[in-house]
Specification:
By secondary structure, the protein is α/β, with parallel strands linked by helices. Helix content is about 40%, strand content about 15%. Strands 3, 4, 5, 8, 9, 10, 11, 12, 13 and 14 form a 10-stranded mixed sheet that branches.
């Protein structure tokens, strides 16, 4: 799961470039297809193809099983392909005029494919449209159109090593709910052997502080750059202050690849990660005892970032009607809860929240953050700007936050011209 969410930061930048170079897809559907009288969707007797970017065998098996069940009940054949490089294979499919009918689509890829006509904007035709979390719907809305159903999502929370916590003389009463309290416990937890707070040195983690201060890189629908807002300056100033007093360090400076590794190896008493960390901890660091709590509130209140993908449907699919029915099944409470049990994501629909919380009591803080979580920028080219922003954040401890944010503001504004 850690790899799949990081796709927005790494492979996403490449995907965004690839998307923008594609020629617009037409709407000439394959022979044998016809427009449906309901909703203007095409229909045919052709089998559906489903392209996914899997986090591992568990995810591939779960999606295969769900699609096979739907195919049996619907009478429409469907096959699943787990891509070795989702972004590349998705781009190749569109450029060749033979895209998969249904596919995983990241937030950063939406604008490029939507603007060139590659995607079917089917969101408003979903029977379960009103069940999705509103913030997730915003992440997949482009030019006022809700394009695709969010398939699941993750938020960031604070993970605490309970043994280190107790050794520092801290109790549940000390769990931080404000920035000042976080700074206090981070100092108490910092020893010669480990830092109080170890996180990834990137927007996808430090951005949580920005939301807690009331900011983010762009507004909710990614139509306005807000990188150098006073709120974001406050957030980076705060992170820099923790770095200066030695209670916050980047994972790479601790000799780890990401926050979860630093946390698992005992190099950090706390980290900020999404719910994908649970799989990594269970697999690689099963002896570490920890608890998950919501991130402390900042000057503007509670805040966190969310990460999500959707089920895209190709504009050139000869069987859009069946594809829509498949997506409705894959985003149903039963399927999403099965996916969660199999490989860890949180359901994107509100009706599944209660049952998910009962099944995952230790992870409830992740889902409780859904009501105030903010999405990452979805403007065309934003992933490239964030990559540049990340490189600047690497030097935050010795740089001026306002200067970093001003440069990012300029780059984001250039995307909107």
């Amino acid at each position: 799961m850690q790899r799949s969410t990081s796709r927005w930061l790494v492979a996403g930048a490449l995907a965004a470039v690839g998307v923008l170079t594609l020629s617009a897809c037409g709407s000439g559907f394959s022979s044998g297809s016809s427009a449906s009288p309901s909703g203007g969707l095409t229909s045919s007797n052709k089998a559906l193809t489903v392209l996914i970017g899997s986090s591992g065998d568990a995810e591939t098996k779960a999606v295969n099983s769900a699609v096979a069940d739907w195919a049996t009940s619907s009478g429409t054949k469907a096959t699943v392909n787990a891509a070795s490089d989702l972004n590349q294979q998705l781009a190749q499919g569109f450029s060749s005029g033979k895209p998969a009918d249904v596919f995983y689509l990241s937030t950063d890829a939406l604008a490029g494919y939507a603007s060139n006509g590659s995607l079917l904007a089917y969101g408003d035709q979903l029977s379960n449209k009103s069940d999705f979390y509103p913030s997730l719907v915003k992440s997949f809305t482009y030019n006022g159109k809700f394009y695709c159903a969010p398939k699941d999502f993750s938020t960031l929370a604070l993970e605490i090593n309970t043994d280190m916590w107790a050794a520092a003389g801290l109790t549940d009463a000390d769990i931080p709910t404000t920035w000042d309290q976080l700074q206090t416990v981070a100092k108490k937890l910092t020893t010669a052997g480990h830092v109080g707070l170890g996180i990834g040195g990137e927007y996808a983690r430090i951005g949580a502080f920005m939301t807690e201060a009331g900011g983010n890189l762009m507004n909710a629908d990614s139509t306005k750059a807000t990188a150098n807002s006073a709120a974001n300056v406050t957030a980076l100033d705060y992170a820099k202050k923790l770095m200066t007093d030695g209670s916050l360090k980047y994972a790479k400076d601790l000799g780890a690849g990401w926050g979860g590794e630093a946390f698992g190896k005992g190099l950090a008493a706390m980290t900020i990660e999404g719910n994908w960390i649970t799989g990594g901890m269970q697999a690689d660091y099963p002896s570490i005892k920890y608890k998950v709590v919501q991130l402390p509130a900042g000057p503007a209140g509670k805040g966190t970032l969310q990460f999500t993908n959707c089920w895209g449907i190709a504009a050139d699919s000869p069987n859009q009607a069946a594809a829509l029915k498949l997506v409705e099944k894959l985003t149903s409470a039963s399927d999403q809860l099965a996916f969660s049990k199999a490989f860890g994501p949180m359901p994107s629909i509100q009706s599944a929240a209660s049952e998910w919380k009962k099944a995952n009591p230790a992870l409830v803080p992740f889902l409780d953050a859904a009501s105030y979580a903010k999405g990452v920028p979805t403007a065309k080219g934003a992933a490239d700007v964030v990559t540049d922003f990340n490189s600047k954040l690497e030097t935050l401890a010795t740089s001026d936050p306002k200067t970093i944010l001003d440069a990012t503001q300029t780059n984001l504004q250039a995307l909107l011209k």
